[in-house]
Every structure is written in C-alpha cells, then in structure tokens.
Amino acid sequence: xxxxxxxxxxxxxxxxxxxxxxxxxxxxxxxxxxxxxxxxxxxxxxxxxxxxxxxxxxxxxxxxxxxxxxxxxxxxxxxxxxxxxxxxxxxxxxxxxxxxxxxxxxxxxxxxxxxxxxxxxxxxxxxxxxxxxxxxxxxxxxxxxxxxxxxxxxxxxxxxxxxxxxxxxxxxxxxxxxxxxxxxxxxxxxxxxxxxxxxxxxxxxxxxxxxxxxxxxxxxxxxxxxxxxxxxxxxxxxxxxxxxxxxxxxxxxxxxxxxxxxxxxxx
Length: 267
What we know:
The protein is mostly helical. The protein has one domain (2-266). It is built from 11 helices and no strands. It has helices at 2-21, 28-47, 54-92, 95-99, 105-136, 142-148, 151-179, 183-195, 202-205, 209-216, 235-258. The radius of gyration is 20 Å and the shape is globular. The model has no long low-confidence stretch (mean pLDDT 85).
C-alpha cells in the first residue's frame, strides 16, 4: 500500500518539477547545447548532400558524439540541471514548501531525480536521433543505410548511451548539489576524470562512467598514443552496473535529504 502511495507521490513531484523548469531560464543553456548541432547539421545536410561516403560519416559522427555530445553537452548540462534541483531551491528559499508537504524526503528526492532524468533524456535523446540521421543525410546512400544496414541499430545504441549518461551523471550531480554549496568545483574535477579516463590505469578506468558508456557505443574512436587499452565491459554487464550505480547514488541522496536541516541563513 505504501509503495503505491510513494510511487504516485514521486510521479507528482516529477510532474511539478517538469512544469516549473521546462520553460525556465535556467534550462536555456541546455536547449542551446542540445539543439545547436541539429541546426548546424541541418544546414550541412542541405548543402553537402550527395558528397561524403558512409564510412567517413560513421567515423565523423562517432568523434562528434563522443567528444562534444557526451563529454561536453550531456555532461555539463546534467551538472547544470541536477545540481540545482535542490541547491537552487535552497538559494531561492523555496525548498521548505516541499518539506512541509506530507511526503517522505526520500520520495521527494526520487521525484526530483525522475524529473531531471526525464527532461534531459528526452531533450538529448531527441537530438541524438536527429543528429545521427542528419549526418548520414549528406550521403546518397543514407536511406539504404538506415533501412537495410546498421543505421537503426546504431541509433538505438547511441540513444541508450545518452539515456544512461543522463541517469548516471544526473545521480552524481544530484548528490554534489546536496553536499557542496558550489557544485561547479566538483563538476570541473569530475569532468577531468571522465574526459581523460583513457589515460588512467586499467583498474581506475573501471571506476569511471565513461568506460562503461564507451563499451556500449557502436563505433570507437582513436584515443591517441597515451591511451591505456582496456578490454570493453560487455553491455550485458555494463548497463546493470551503471543502473545500479545511479540507484545507489540516488538512495544516498535520499538519506542525506532525510537528515537535512533547512538553514537558509547559512547560505
């Protein structure tokens, strides 16, 4: 009985959060980072159609996705969105309204997390699909590639990585927003850890999110001469590891929230 109530409450919190934030100015940077490549690739698809070969486009998109989309746009937009889900309300002095409602704090935290995951996953999931299609539209063979080749399976794998990245990085930055008054410092440190994961020893690479995301991607890219080669973790193991890590982090967030005392004057 309680579980049904908690689920309904979490979904209600998620809906409220989405309604509050989806058109808020704080998400403007997210929309710009997500849809700017769509705009540029649309122009390229119109002007360069019929030119590039499929093999070159496959490599080009892999480089674009792994360097810009995954390590920059998704990473820092998750930092922006999730770190402010609680910290932003503390700054605005509105968090106590939630605290006064008859909702368990763990449920409140989970609802906020669901809102962040839903928003970022839909936005970046949409742009991932659009950019993947637009890149191949520059070739005359793009329809054959998607209808008869690896186009659709590759799109699904890129989309899966996008959602998993939003889930995992979102949980990490949600916790950072709870623990630190200035989450941007932790975001910069984690950005360096994740961006240059390939130079870490094999054991340490397995403690990065990017290692497991890279293992799911359909196309790898050259990491340079200083990269430490590590065997890929199969997706059948990598996906549950990321989901479990996100779930454990959100649970920790709930415990932190449960013990939190609202003292706006300290901020």
